[in-house]
Amino acid sequence: MTRILIVEDEDRISSFIAKGLAAEGFAAEVTEDGHMAVEFVRGGGFDLVILDLGLPGLDGFSVLRMIRAERHDLPVIILTARESIEDTVAGLSSGADDYMRKPFAFDELLARVRLRLRPVDAQEATVLRAGDLAVDIRTRRALVGDKAIELSSREFTLLEAFLRHPDQVLSRAQLLSRVWGLDFDPGSNVVDVYVRYLREKLGRGTIETVRGAGYRLSVPKM
Questions:
Q1: Which string of b and e fits 80-111 if b means at least 16 CB within 10 Å?
Q2: Before 119, cis peptide (omega within 30)?
Q3: Which H or E run includes 172?
Q4: Whole-model pTM above 0.70?
Q5: Is the pLDDT at 89 greater than 70, yes or no?
Q6: Nearest to 48 by CA among 103, 109, 125, 123
């Protein structure tokens, strides 16, 4: 089983990530301590690290530099509330493989995790298909047949959530959590609004309403 180390000092966020990863078949270990994170990596057995920058004591930059200085080459995804370009550049220059800002949608984090774990020669696996609909999560392009469809970031992540769960009814609460992340409002109608946007761009029959339950992708399979 793929093991992922989550280095995050906010319990709410680390629990959210760990539960989501477990539901997707990953084994997650959580620590809020930078020194302990380095020891975990030294001990081996992990396939990827999700690393917060704003850790108490030994911060995320220092953890990353120590990991890379010891030539541990496992993928590291930085997760942070910092927004400056300087921090982004510093993180990537220190050896991070990817960089995500909080708040985040779990499905986008999951896509990045899967991409970083995937062998370089398996790029075709980044394309999700249903009928004549194809979505490339690496380039973030969507096609219906040969026609490119322009999607916003939220529209793309919502469509990806449906494509990753074919034939499954997804509730509004599930979609809010996966696409809008931790700080969603359970009373919001934002899911309904964005489902309407996708229907307008992909075809009205693309996403089926299941009364009292949620929505399901209904593109016919080829």
A1: bebeeeebbebbeebebbbbeebebbbbbbbb
A2: no
A3: helix 172-175
A4: no
A5: no
A6: 109
